[in-house]
Request: fold
Amino acid sequence: MSRSERRPTTVGARREPPRFRRVAVRRVEHLSPRMVRVTLAGPDLEGLTVEHPAASVRLLLPSPGGQELVVPSWNGNEFLLPDGRRPTIRTFTPRRVDAEALELDVEIVIHGGGVASEWVEVAEPGDPAAISGPGRGYAIDRDAPAFLLAGDETAIPAISQLLEALPAETPVQVHIEVAHPDARLALPDRPRATVEWCDLPPGASSGDALVAAVRGADLVPGTKVWVAGEAAALQHIRRHLFEDRGLPRAQASVRGYWKHGRSGDADDDA
Ligand SMILES: Cc1cc2nc3c(=O)[nH]c(=O)nc-3n(C[C@H](O)[C@H](O)[C@H](O)COP(=O)(O)OP(=O)(O)OC[C@H]3O[C@@H](n4cnc5c(N)ncnc54)[C@H](O)[C@@H]3O)c2cc1C
Reply:
């Protein structure tokens, strides 16, 4: 390629994420007082495929105070609305994709103080949104001797998918921290899974019960570990797994799903 054919590169330019697909809410189902399943649908979902469990999609919502959905443009570094403001984009797990019905389910935690959490509490059929993705999921090692899945309420959709996808004969231990007892949900049935629901004590920091559960877990050699939840708690879990237990990095996926005190996701991987 000659120099003139090379595309100009901008310092710090990032690869443009997949385009936004316009959708509308088709159904809303309250799975618990803390979790709402929203079925998004529309012809733009044609061709959306999700290969692995625990993947991600970015959900674009109307800006707070507005009903209208404005799709932002990519400026080489980030998405911006025509008026220069940042759009409201949050990350969720694509829980179910139906290519025939052109539907996508996401399950959103009602935690009280966020745009997506507030949006989903009052979401109704016909409400506009858009999704982009999917982002990378979890490639399952079918030869692993055992799995540990751990997370907080935001990880319940991904953990449910993983329980459906892991090899049936492999033992799986699951630890889920809930900030409220009402957040417990029925998980997919699996013969060789043990599930521990860990209540976050009043006044404790998000992730405290999850950190304690992972610290106390009995891991047979070679166990594959998947953990997601609040970013600071996951730093403790990373240190515990990789330093205290000396787990090889490739044996664990530790993913920050949100960060205390900060809007938007905290997607960082081990
Ligand atoms: C790969 C990936 C997959 C994810 N999958 C899911 C999913 O399937 N379901 C899901 O509900 N979330 C999921 N999340 C997490 C979700 O993106 C964040 O919780 C997001 O911040 C929620 O947006 P919000 O607008 O409600 O709150 P924000 O406006 O982003 O945050 C407002 C405030 O609420 C706090 N906050 C955010 N989330 C929580 C929470 N769960 N509990 C308590 N406080 C919180 C923030 O720290 C901030 O102070 C995922 C994140 C990633 C990276």
Q: What stands out?
A: DSSP finds four helices and 14 strands in the chain. Confidence is low (pLDDT under 50) at residues 1-10. The longest strand covers residues 21-32.
